[in-house]
From TrEMBL, chains A, B, C, D:
Record organism: Aminobacter ciceronei
Any one Pfam family match given in the protein's UniProt record, by short name: HbpS-like
Name this protein carries in UniProt: Uncharacterized protein GlcG (DUF336 family)
InterPro entries in the record: GlcG_carb_metab_protein, PduO/GlcC-like, PduO/GlcC-like_sf
Length: 143, 143, 143, 143
C-alpha cells in the first residue's frame, strides 16, 4: 500500500469507536489525516463538545509534524516547553501536544497518515486509536 | 429531532457518495457541519485533490453564515463582490461562495446543519448534497 | 457627553429592534461599538443566522475605520475596489463594506461610536440603526 | 427549551449585573454565547477596560470548547500547561482559561450555551455568572 485509502480510514474510525464503546469511554471524536496532514475522514459522536475536531486533528497533525506519536510531543512539551511553543507557532497553531495522536504506517513501515482521538483520558484516546489502526491491518506508532 | 446526529450525518455522506457513483461524478469530498459550524462527519474519496476539506467545509460554513444555501452566495458574489469579500474577511477566510453548500433542516424546518460537497461541477456537487439530505429524511435548502 | 454609555447603547439596540418589528423586518442583529472600535453592547434576535455578530460589527468597525457611515464604504468599494481590499487587509479582515453601519455622534458632533445592523436588506438595516440612534438623543451619520 | 433565546440571554446579563452591583463588584462585562460559540448578547459596563469583550467571550468560548466550566480550564492550565497552550492554539487564540466562564444547560441538562464574565476577581465573576443563569431558570456548570 502506498497511500491511505478512504476505506482504511473509515475502518480505523469504526474500530476506534467500537473500542470506545466496549471500554465505556466518553463520546469520542476521531480524525484521520493523510501523510500530507490533510483530513481524509472524520466522525464526532453525539455529546462530544464544541472544539473536538480541532483537538483531534491537532493531535494527529502534531504527530505528523515531527514523525512521532503525540505522546512524544507530550513528553517533549514537559522537558522543552519552548520547543513545543515554537513548533506550534510555526505550524500556524495547529498542534495539541498530548497523547492520542498516533502515526499510521503500512506493513513496510512507510508513513501513510495519522489518527487523532479526543474525548476520554488521553491514555484511553490513544488506546482507541491503536485499536482502530490494528483493525485496518496497519502499523501504529504512538510515541 | 433537535440536533444533527452522527448517524444522520453518516447517512448523508454515504448517500451523497452513492449519488456521485451513480452519476459517474469525479471523486467527491463531503463535509457535514452542525448548526454552529462545527464539523460532525467527513469523507474524502481516493483521488480527490489536496485542499478538498477546506473547499467542502467552506461551502457549508458559508451557507450557515447567512442562513442560505451557497448558491445564494454564488449569485451575491457576482452582484455584490465587495459584500462577499467582506463576509469572507470577517469569517476569517472560511467561505467558498459557490453551489454545493446546502442547509439541512429537520421536518419542522429548524436549521440543524449544512453539508458541503466538492469534486465535480458545482451543480453536480449540489445534486449529491441534496440526495444525501433526502436519504436521511431531512429537508434541504440550496439557495 | 464625552463617551458612549451602556445606557445609551442599550437604548439604541432596543429602539432599533422596535423599528425592525414595526417594519416587519427579518430577525436583526445589532452591535454597538465605542469610538475605539470595541464592543459595548450587542443583541442577536432569535432566528438570525450564524455569522451575524461578525457582519454587524464588521459594518460598524468599517464605519469607524474611515470616519464615514458604511454606505460610503459600499460606494467606495464599487468605485475603487482595490482601496477597500487594502483597507480590509490592514484591518485584519474586520470590515463588511455595505450599508447598515452608522456613526454615532453626540450633540456637539463628537464621534462616540458606531452601530452596525444586519438581517434585512442593507437599506432597512440602516433605517433601524438611525432609529436607534435618534431614540437615544444622539446624531447619526450613515454615509 | 432547545435553544438559548435572546430573552433568556438578556435576563442572564441583567441578573449578573445586578449581582455585581449588590456585591459592589467592579464594572463587569458579560458575554452570552450559544452552544455553537456564537455571540447572542453582550453588555460592558461603563468604566470597564478596553479588551473586556475578548476576555469575557474567551472564558465562555473555552468552556464550550471542552464542555466544562472555565474553572476546569484554570486547573488544567496549572497541571498541564502544554495542553492548554495547544487548545488555545487550535482555537485560533480564543480562550481565556480562568474562572468566570460557566456553561448554560436547560432543565433537561442539555447544553445550550455559556456565559463569560470579567471585571472583578475571577471568583466573583463566576458568582455573577451563576446568579445570572439561575435568574433565567436554567442550570449552570462552573467546573
Amino acid at each position: 500500500m502506498t497511500d491511505l485509502t478512504l476505506a482504511a480510514a473509515n475502518t480505523i474510525i469504526m474500530a476506534a469507536l467500537a473500542k470506545g464503546a466496549d471500554a465505556r469511554m466518553k463520546p469520542l471524536t476521531v480524525a484521520v489525516l493523510d501523510a500530507g496532514g490533510h483530513l481524509k475522514a472524520f466522525q464526532k459522536q453525539d455529546g462530544a463538545s464544541m472544539l473536538r475536531y480541532e483537538i483531534a486533528s491537532g493531535k494527529a497533525y502534531g504527530a505528523l509534524a515531527v514523525g512521532m506519536g503525540s505522546r512524544w510531543l507530550d513528553q517533549t512539551a514537559k522537558e522543552r516547553p519552548h520547543f513545543m511553543e515554537g513548533l506550534n507557532a510555526v505550524s500556524g497553531g495547529r498542534i495539541v501536544p498530548v497523547p492520542g495522536g498516533v502515526l499510521i504506517r503500512d506493513q513496510t513501515g512507510k508513513l501513510i497518515g495519522a489518527v487523532g482521538i479526543t474525548g476520554d483520558t488521553s491514555d484511553n484516546d490513544e488506546l482507541a486509536a491503536i485499536a482502530g489502526i490494528e483493525a485496518a491491518g496497519l502499523r501504529h506508532q504512538a510515541a
